[in-house]
Structure formats: C-alpha cells, structure tokens
Amino acid sequence: MKLLNIIDQPHAIDRRAAFGELGRTLGKAATVAMPLAAFFAPGRARAQASGDTVVDVLNFALTLEYLEAEYYAMGLDSDGLLTGDMRETIALIGQHETAHVEFLRSAISGSGGTPVEKPAFDFTANGAFANIFSNTETFMAVAQAFEDTGVRAYKGQAGNLMGNGDVLTAALQIHSVEARHASMIRRMRGSKGWITNAMNTTGAAPADAVYAGEDQVTQLGVDVTSVSSVDRGQITESFDEPLGKQAVLDIASLFIQA
C-alpha cells in the first residue's frame, strides 16, 4: 500500500504570509507560537473510505510513527541542534517511536495485511521551516505539534477498534506513551505539560489545526461550565479531544513528499 493512496496532493498555502500574520497578531507570544503557523490553513488531504478496517487504522498509525521516528533521528543527526538533557530525552523518545514502528509493521503483517511504505519526508514543509534542523526552538515547537497531533489521532481512532479488544489495548498503550512525550516536550519548552486554553487561538488568530476543538466545554452532552465552579479555561484543560483522520492527514501531508 502506498501513502499516495491516502494523501492526494500537498497543500497550496502561503506559509510565509501565515508566519507574518501570526507575528503581527500575537506579538511577543509569537516566539513560541510562530513555528506552528504552517498548520493554520486547511489542506486537501484525502482520507480513506468510511468503514476503515483494523489494518487501515494500523497503517494510519504507522504513517504517523514513521514521521515521528524519522524526525527525531534527523534532529539527533544535526550537529549542535540538541545538547545535554534535551538530546538525551529526544533520543529516548526517538527510540520509543522506532519501537512503535517495528511493532505496528509486525502487527499488520501478522494480521495478513501489508504495512504502508515509509514515505519521503520534507520537514521544512516546502521551506516554511527552513531552519528546522538548525534552530532548536523551531525543532521543538514542531515536535510538540507532532506529539499533540499523535495523541489526538490515536484517540480519534479508538472507536474503529472497539470490535478488537487486543488491538484497542495495544493502541491505548501507545497512546498513553505519546501523551507522555507531548507533556515532556512541552515542559522542555517551558510550557505546562498539558494543552492549555492559551494554545487555542480562537478569536485572536486563525484557528490552529493542531488544536482545533480543544476549547470544547461540552462533554457527553453536558455543558461542564454549568455544573462546575472551575474556570472555563481550566475546564478545557481537563479534557482532551480526539482528532479525526482527515484533520490528521491534513497536518501530516504538509511534511510528506510522496
């Protein structure tokens, strides 16, 4: 199975303009947020047909794990980019992602499926992140986006695995580790370990695809603000939202060449 069967074509997006607009909108806060600007515009990625099989879901997960494993490997190979404790932590996270890749390939083959081919990646996103392997802040900001997207992606596929308890359990075991990765990277960047209301740009700037929907306060049909004295912003921090396959592919396709 080729990834081109999943993703139609790359985005047509003026990412440099998005950088500039974000900088003008957020001012000093853009120092952290700017590397995420390329996620702002919706893409034209094409999801697989409805009714995904377990193999479809596993291949979807495998594509994301390929992306993360390759990203960290390239970061570690970049002279001077990662040093000290940060380098040690990224190396460990990279090993986890490699283990996920190997496990998913084996699981897919063992079920009689064909593991998706590893695509070619362009982590500069066609030049939007030209300094991604020379600027530590840019590298870590995109790493945060990848990990936060991965956590939401696994959550978004849980319903498709409900009929297979063993596979669902394995996916949840990976999901929780991805959440730990996201939390650790956030802390290394000087942020809280969870997605905060401040990360949602609703009303202040174009909605960021990575965090779209994270300002949700209704759970199981209940408006949590109506039954809780907790601040609205903290309520949004108390619940993580899933991200659908289409939205995830829109994000991933920014970095996939073929």
From TrEMBL:
Gene3D superfamilies xrefs: 1.20.1260.10
A family per Pfam: Ferritin_2
Domain of life: Bacteria
SUPFAM superfamilies hit by this protein: Ferritin-like
InterPro entries xref list: Ferritin-like, Ferritin-like_SF, Pigment-catalase-like
Protein name (Swiss-Prot/TrEMBL): Ferritin-like protein
Lineage: Bacteria, Pseudomonadati, Bacteroidota, Saprospiria, Saprospirales
